[in-house]
Design brief:
The protein is an alpha+beta fold. It is built from 4 helices and 7 strands, in the order βααβββαβαββ.
Length: 192
């Protein structure tokens, strides 16, 4: 005996957000202070009622914006999304976050790579994203998912009174596909 306990592997799924995920969204939000910039409401005001509204208003799944819940063992623990989807030029803006307890296992990179592959199959050519330069974990997610760093946008974001430089990344349909296991996507959350 090695002294370690064997845990069954967790199951992962990408699916549409549902207002019934409100409690999971509140728990994810409260799990880490760094998620405050991801939501249009402060943590003190985020209860299940407001979280259901955030899901409806800020995590849509339509022609211009698609947000998938990253579901681990039946519970939404994060999101990966594409916004500003534009087929004339074949571009979109990618984003992602995970609850604190779901981090550090490559889940966000796998989710981002899965969504990128499906977006390229649907006809997009260039996916872009940006992260604060003081967020190296987000940089690791982007890089592992095949998004190449392209440059720094000085003082692009403001949270409170503080401004932050942002490093931009992009992945093209013609870039190599990262060697990451894809995450299953629910049938009603595909591009078709």
């Amino acid at each position: 005996m090695t002294g370690t306990t064997d845990r069954p592997p967790s199951t992962l799924l990408l699916r549409r957000w549902d207002p019934r995920d409100a409690a999971a969204l509140v728990a994810a939000y409260r799990s880490s202070g760094d998620l405050a910039t991801q939501f249009p409401v402060d943590s003190a005001a985020l209860d299940e009622h407001r979280a259901a509204a955030v899901i409806e208003e800020s995590l849509p799944f339509d022609d211009r914006s698609k947000h998938w819940a990253i579901v681990q063992d039946g519970v939404a623990v994060g999101t990966v999304g594409l916004a500003a989807i534009e087929f004339r030029h074949g571009t979109a803006w990618a984003s992602y976050w995970l609850a604190d307890g779901a981090r550090g296992r490559g889940t966000a990179s796998r989710a981002l790579a899965t969504v990128a592959t499906s977006a390229f199959t649907a006809g997009l050519h260039r996916l872009e994203l940006g992260h604060r330069v003081n967020n190296p974990a987000s940089c690791r997610v982007a890089s592992a998912a095949g998004f190449a760093a392209e440059g720094i946008e000085r003082q692009k974001l403001r949270y409170g009174t503080e401004r932050f430089d942002v490093e931009t990344h992009a992945r093209l349909a013609t870039d190599p596909t990262p060697d990451l296991a894809p995450i299953d996507v629910a049938e009603d959350a595909s591009w078709n």
